[in-house]
């Protein structure tokens, strides 16, 4: 098992962090396509429509062409959605990680192995938490595909949990996509509890991409740094 260590983000890491984030998002496209194909209305379009085409026209070629075009359109839809999400992120918090995290009472860490950044995660105080709670939100967890299975993601999450404890937070919260199956399994195995689910838009509902919300409860401690609503 390759060794690694976790350290705080530095400006020299920005290019590699962006690469990790972008690649991680692209890897979700096949899972998103598979998830949509499992939806009831997708079953009407594939294989329902091809079967109808064969019954009506008797042409397997036409049915095959339709199926290939349908799958191609799905991949294109998710590719465009992924590209737009990455572009928005690179114009938001990932544009200036130091400002968005380190200078905002949060932090950002990278996992390094063999002199290369292979993982990352960020944390920010929740600005408007529920009454009487102090929360830290976990963001941008990602590990390169070549370095998964080594416990890096778990170590990055534990780094956020410890940071939240040190800041006197009572909870760590996060949101993740329904197609991020590995991340969902990791969070649940580490004790995060699902607290909600929603669709960001009607389009996302139609293609079956929901956002899941999770919470990890921390032992009560006194501290400063997280936002609190009195």
SSE blueprint:
Layout: E1 5-8, H1 14-26, H2 29-37, H3 40-57, H4 60-91, H5 97-100, E2 107-113, E3 116-125, E4 135-143, H6 152-166, E5 171-177, H7 181-189, E6 193-198, H8 202-206, E7 211-217
Parallel strand pairs: 4-5
Antiparallel strand pairs: 1-2, 2-3, 3-4, 5-7, 6-7
Helix pairs in contact: 1-4, 2-4, 3-4
What does this structure look like?
- The protein has 230 residues and is of the alpha+beta class.
- It has one domain (1-230): Gcn5-related N-acetyltransferase (GNAT) (Aminopeptidase), CATH 3.40.630.
- The protein is 46% helix and 22% strand.
- The chain has helices spanning 14-26, 29-37, 40-57, 60-91, 97-100, 152-166, 181-189, 202-206; strands at residues 5-8, 107-113, 116-125, 135-143, 171-177, 193-198, 211-217.
- Strands 1-2-3-4-5-7-6 form a seven-stranded mixed beta sheet, with helices on both faces.
- Strand 4, helix 6 (152-166) and strand 5 (171-177) form a beta-alpha-beta unit.
- The longest helix is centred in the first third of the chain and has 32 residues, at 60-91.
- The chain is elongated, with a radius of gyration of 21 Å.
- The N and C termini lie far apart (47 Å).
């Amino acid at each position: 098992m390759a060794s690694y260590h976790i350290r705080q983000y530095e400006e020299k890491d920005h290019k590699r962090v962006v690469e990790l984030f972008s690649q991680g998002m692209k890897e979700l496209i096949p899972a998103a396509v598979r998830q949509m194909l499992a939806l009831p209305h997708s079953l009407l379009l594939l294989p329902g429509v091809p079967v109808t085409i064969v019954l009506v026209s008797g042409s397997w070629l036409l049915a095959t062409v339709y199926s290939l075009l349908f799958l191609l359109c799905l991949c294109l839809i998710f590719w465009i959605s992924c590209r737009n999400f990455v572009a928005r992120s690179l114009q938001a918090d990932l544009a200036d990680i130091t400002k968005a995290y380190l200078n905002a009472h949060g932090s950002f860490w990278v996992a390094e192995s063999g002199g290369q950044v292979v993982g990352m995660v960020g944390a920010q105080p929740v600005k408007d938490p529920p009454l009487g709670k102090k929360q830290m939100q976990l963001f941008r967890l990602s590990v390169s595909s070549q370095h998964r299975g080594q416990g890096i993601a778990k170590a990055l999450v534990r780094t956020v949990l410890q940071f939240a404890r040190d800041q006197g937070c009572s909870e760590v919260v996060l949101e993740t996509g329904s197609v991020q199956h590995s991340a969902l399994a990791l969070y649940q195995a580490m004790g995060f509890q699902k607290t909600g689910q929603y669709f960001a838009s009607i389009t996302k509902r139609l293609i079956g991409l929901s956002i899941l919300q999770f919470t990890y409860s921390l032992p009560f401690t006194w501290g400063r740094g997280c936002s609190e609503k009195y």
